[in-house]
Design goal:
binds 2-phosphoglycolic acid; alpha/beta; globular; 254 residues; 15% strand
Length: 254
């Protein structure tokens, strides 16, 4: 049984005071929730103050990106050890990083290695564009992203399948479509790590998940949680998604 993960990717939103306000609304509901792993990924400027707020809770903290080098002349970047001072997770290869900041499977691969070497759990994002989806290339694209992005890494990681056409658009993939692609991803993981290990790796769906549609995803066999963008900026919606995922786990256990 895989413990679901609900991770909030705040993207470039929330000043420190806004971040504090949002987290203080969430903490009473999330601080000791069982049966689901909750992770908040605020912007880099809020990592330190939010880490202080999350101390003593079961809520995880992550960055949205980092560089693979340990230090040096990389203006504007965060090193892995700077992230691991505060957080346990790091989102890598998000489609917005790939599209706007030139990230490739090769740079994602270097970052996954660096994250693991620094004790961070990478949340590695993969997903196809609308054109690729319409040309029936989804499975080829995600397979390539997984094979190249994970070359030579350890299995301590989380995958997020995010069809690019479903991110921030309100046009979510159906739960059946998402589950079918996630099954393909698990097969590729089985080729890399062996079947038993692949069965234990959490694979999330991301793209327009909200409190109102979350249950359909979590009811699917291979979807182990969600990476949430817009809905992670609203305390009540994010809390609802966490509670819905926990309810699905309890159903599965009974
Ligand atoms: P969304 O974003 O939930 O706003 O669609 C998801 C993501 O980009 O991680």
């Amino acid at each position: 049984m895989r413990t679901p993960i609900i991770a909030g990717n705040w993207k470039m939103n929330k000043t420190v005071s806004e971040a504090r306000e949002l987290v203080s609304e969430m903490i009473p509901f999330l601080k000791d929730v069982q049966g689901v792993t909750t992770v908040l990924c605020p912007p880099a400027s809020a990592l330190l103050p939010i880490a202080a707020m999350l101390e003593g809770t079961d809520i995880g903290l992550g960055a949205q990106n980092m560089h693979w080098e340990a230090n040096g002349a990389y203006t504007g970047e965060l090193a892995p050890a700077m992230v691991s001072e505060f957080g346990q997770y790091v989102i890598l290869g998000h489609s917005e990083r790939r599209e706007y900041f030139g990230e490739t499977d090769e740079t994602v691969n270097k970052k996954v290695h660096a994250a693991q070497a620094n004790g961070l759990i990478p949340i590695v994002c993969v997903g196809e564009t609308l054109e690729e989806n319409e040309a029936n290339q989804t499975s080829a694209i995600v397979s390539r992203q997984i094979q190249a992005g994970l070359a030579g890494v350890k299995s301590d990681l989380v995958i997020a399948y995010e069809p690019i056409w479903a991110i921030g658009t309100g046009r979510a993939a159906t739960s059946e479509m998402a589950n079918a692609t996630i099954k393909i991803i698990r097969e590729v993981l089985a080729d890399i790590f062996g079947n038993e290990v692949a069965q234990g790796i959490r694979i999330l769906y991301g793209g327009s998940v909200k409190g109102s549609n979350a249950a359909e995803y979590f009811a699917q066999s291979d979807i182990d949680g969600a990476l949430i963008g817009g809905a992670a900026l609203k305390a009540d919606d994010f809390v609802k998604i966490v509670y819905v995922s926990r309810a699905e786990v309890m159903k599965g256990n009974s």
